[in-house]
Write a structure and sequence with these properties.
143 residues; alpha+beta; 4-stranded mixed sheet; two-stranded antiparallel sheet; 5 helices; 40% helix
Length: 143
């Protein structure tokens, strides 16, 4: 378990948006594809921020007459800018502990500064469970 890396539990990037993407498009993507969070990336695919379903819901609930519409509001206006990222080469247990301590469901994974996917609590739990089960089977067969 100590040797497992974030890369073992990586969910490859499927979606990302840019800072000038209208919020309406981001919400549509999140709803249609059942995505909980979308990274906002720069030209080199570096993580600039993240929009979670909570961020989007907060904005939708606070829409007021005369305020900018979802088509006028951009990803940069809604995204959380302080995003903790992990490397695919980081120990999986470290990432798991970080997620538990900070109470986050998923973390963006980067390689050389470029967003490549997410690691989630679910994938970490599954990967660690399968790793422990595999180790137990190997130990039983050695005895």
């Amino acid at each position: 378990m100590e040797e497992m890396l974030v890369g073992h539990a990586l969910k490859p990037a499927q979606y990302r948006v840019y800072p000038d993407t209208p919020l309406a498009e981001v919400v549509d993507l999140m709803v249609r594809r059942e995505v909980r969070a979308v990274p906002v990336v720069g030209e080199q695919y570096e993580v600039l921020g993240i929009i979670t379903s909570g961020d989007a819901l907060h904005r939708v609930l606070n829409e007021r007459p005369g305020a900018p519409t979802r088509e006028e509001v951009l990803a940069r206006d809604v995204m959380t800018r302080a995003v903790l990222c992990v490397s695919e080469d980081q120990l999986l247990v470290e990432a798991a502990n970080t997620m538990v301590m900070r109470d986050v469901e998923q973390l963006p994974v980067v390689r050389d500064g470029e967003f490549i996917g997410f690691v989630t609590r679910d994938t970490i739990l599954r990967t660690l469970h399968e790793g422990v089960a595999r180790t137990n089977r190997e130990e039983e067969s050695d005895s």
